[in-house]
Amino acid sequence: MDKALDVRNLSFSYNGKTVFDNVSFDICRGDYFGIIGPNGSGKSTLVKLFLNFLSPNGGNINIFGYNVKNFPDWSKVGYISQRAISFNMSFPATVEEIVGSNIYRKAKISGLFTANLKKQRKEKVYNALKIVEMEDNAKKLIGNLSGGQQQRVFIARMLVNNPEIVFLDEPTTGIDAKSEEAVYCLLAKLNKELGITIVMVTHDIGAITVHANKIGFAGNKDVKIISPKDEITEDLIDELYGYKINIHLNRHECTTCYRNAKLKNKTGGI
Amino acid sequence: MAEIFQYEFMRNAFIVGLLISIIIPCIGVVVVLKRLSMMGDTLSHISLAGVAAGLVAGVNPVAGAVTFSILASFGIEKIRKSFSQYAEISLAIIMAAGIGLAGILSGFVKNSSAFTSFLFGSIVAVSRFELLTVIILSVVVLFAFIFMYRDLFCITFDEESAKLAGIAVARVNFIFMLLTAIVISISARTIGTLVVSSLMIVPVASSMLISKSYKETVIYSIVFAVISTISGLIISFYADVKPGATIVLTGVIILLLVMLIKKVFYTLHIRRDISKQHNSQLE
Which of A49, A17, A47 is nearest to A220 (CA)? Predict the structure, then answer.
């Protein structure tokens, strides 16, 4: 199977503290990879290393066969940062502006007169908004939406370039249980129906063990790969974290329906 | 022709005022949304130190202001990275350095009136050379802003995602800091270092109260800045008061009016909703 991410002998230190020491694992195309672990274990750092925001002290990270430092096409990569989620609520921008701002620029500095025609841009924005069923809110100010709706806008923003792999850093922080479930179900659909590889940092062990086909536990300077279907147990989670955690594995259900329509039909081949 | 336009110095003042009130809010919107509202104050204090240095060294004080502002803007960016969670610290540090330098260097300036003219500016006393400089730089700044419009928006909203969207974040930030330094330095000569930062923030604040998108925020900010500059110049001419200070005070009055009008509309809107609900209950 094609590798989406290939991590080989990764080592990373920050302020003299070793976060990862000689870590190796891979993620295949179409995987739904959940990253769990205690606070400060390096979950977000790992995502930043994948995205070349941080440079490893040793080892290599390859995305779709290319070293992350020389990866030629970042439009294939979507990302929702923790910072985007904790954005300034009074930021005066519409949903359309926010989603559109993420359209990949081929030129290093893009302007009004480059090839990104207005109509094409709008089409891309509305296609992405359709997937998350937010097209009716395109002209609304982002700050006027509920937490769950804002989350869907960020997912649309992540999808606007038709990515093949997406990285999400705790995307359900600060939203209610119903909206959280909707986000998980939407991501599961994106993974199953569009084949998008998902890499997600989360603290929600109960939900991620249902949806992900591969779990990476970050801790003790390592990333331990676990199969959520066969290997993961409540006792193992307690052992990895080093303390008792009250979780209910495999009891997360998707009840939120996204019009039950196939995403491929709606987006015109996103 | 109205009396005010019979004088060449007033015609020049209007041209300079109009251009500055178009370019300052363009920079101001990004500065405010990046939560660096003190940037204008900081760079204007540094530019004052540059003016003093220019006067002491016997070179053009505006060139001194531009040089000091550019160096300071890079210093701000460098310190901002070291205190990423406390961006305003970088402004406070550079501002402190600016005030200190301006204080010491001003002591060596022989012609103190030349130095103090930069505090409130002298928009009605711009020379032909200064007029030409303002026109050229305004065109450059405006084109650069339009060219980087979407990139600046994306960086302002989420710098990390901007990198993945193919934006050369460091380059755009570098150019933006350069533009900010230039705008503040040329504005310092005309409307004064003490008021330039106000013109950068106040129209944006008024705009944010009523705008329904980022684009509207930029457009309304320019409109408010132009209104306050033109009316400020007219008032200052007839009332014989300092133009720079009048422009800023007009801006503050516009902000208060927008707040008042918004409050009135909001109250009327709520009352209308309540009476609608009441009527539907009666039916």
Answer: A17
| ipTM given for this complex | 0.80
Q: Per residue of chain A (270 residues), what is the pLDDT tens digit?
A: 688 999 999 999 988 889 999 999 999 999 999 999 888 889 999 999 999 999 999 999 999 999 999 998 888 999 988 766 667 777 899 999 999 988 887 654 444 445 556 788 888 999 999 988 898 999 999 988 888 888 889 999 999 999 999 999 988 777 777 788 888 888 988 999 889 999 999 888 878 888 888 999 888 888 988 877 666 777 777 777 777 666 665 555 555 444 433 444 444 434
Give the strand order in the sheet containing A3-14: A17-28, A3-14, A58-63, A66-67
CA B179 to chain centroid: 11
Identify whether the C-beta of residue A236 lies closer than 8 Å to the C-beta of residue A36. Answer: no
Q: Are strands A197-201 and A165-169 parallel, antiparallel or unpaired?
A: parallel
Q: How far apart are CA A148 and CA A170, in angstroms?
A: 14
Considering only CB atoms, which residues of chain B are within 8 Å of chain A?
A: 33, 35, 146-151, 153-154, 157-161, 163-168, 171-172, 175, 208, 211-217
Residues of B in contact with A124 (CB under 8 A): none
DSSP annotation of B5 = G
Q: Provide the sign of the torsion angle of the four alpha carbons A147, A149, A150, A156, taken in this order.
A: positive
What 3 state SS string does chain A have? CCEEEEEEEEEEEECCEEEEEEEEEEEECCCEEEEECCCCCCHHHHHHHHCCCCCCCEEEEEECCEEHHHCCCHHHEEEECHHHHCCCCCCCCEHHHHHHCCCCCCCCCCCCCCCCCHHHHHHHHHHHHHHCCCHHHCCCEHHHCCHHHHHHHHHHHHHCCCCCEEEEECCCCCCCHHHHHHHHHHHHHHHHHHCCEEEEECCCHHHHHHHCCEEEEEECCEEEEECCCCCCCHHHHHHHHCCCCCCCCCCCCCCCCCCCCCHHHHHCCC
3-state secondary structure of B234: helix
Q: Which residue in chain B has the smallest CA separation from A168?
A: B161
- Residue A60's nearest CA partner among A9, A2, A3, A5 is A9
Strand-strand pairing, A197-201 and A3-14: unpaired
Token pair 């179409």: residue: A30
Report the residue from B158, B166, B216 with minimal CB separation from A84. Answer: B158
Q: Which residues of B touch A154 (CB under 8 A)?
A: none
A149/chain B closest Cα distance in angstroms: 18
Rg (CA), chain A: 19
Residue B141: CB atoms within 10 A of its CB come to 23
Longest dimension (CA), chain B: 82
Beta strand pairing status for A58-63 and A66-67? antiparallel
